[in-house]
Amino acid sequence: MARYLQHAGYRIIPVNPNVAEVLGERAYATLSELPGPVDVVEVFRRSEFAGAIVDEAIAIKAAAVWLQDGVVDEAAAERARAAGLDVVMDDCMMRRHAAMG
Fold it and tell me: Going by CATH, does the domain composed of 2-100 fall within 3.40.50.720?
């Protein structure tokens, strides 16, 4: 998915404490370490981990959070909406982008 979006022209900045680089981009251990503003935080973790990631997205003032297929956390989504973030849950960004054409 990340490679697809990168090839479509989007800049993908990986956040994963276990890797140094992904697809030629430096990886960061946490969202708070990112050097600039964030448009969308894409969540590829199991639902039980999504809330903490959403809270960090709120803290860095990301514009949106997108929880991938199968990732559902209604309480976290409500916190994000209340903080002014756009929220997509249980959906695939690549599939949506490809459908737009």
Answer: yes
For the entire predicted model, the pTM comes to 0.91
Tokens of 46: 């199991």
Asked if residue 12 lies in contact with residue 34, where contact means CB atoms within 8 angstroms, the answer is no
Task: With both helix axes pointing from N to C terminus, report the angle between 74-82 and 47-59 in degrees, rounded to the nearest 10.
Answer: 10
Going through 1-101 in order, the beta strands assigned E by DSSP cover 21-22, 25-26, 40-43, 64-67, 86-88
d(CA 48, CA 72): 8
According to DSSP, the residues that pair with 41 across neighbouring strands are 65
Span between the terminal Cα atoms of the chain, in Å: 16
Query: Mean pLDDT in runs of 10 for the chain (101 residues)?
Result: 90 94 95 96 96 98 97 98 98 92 74
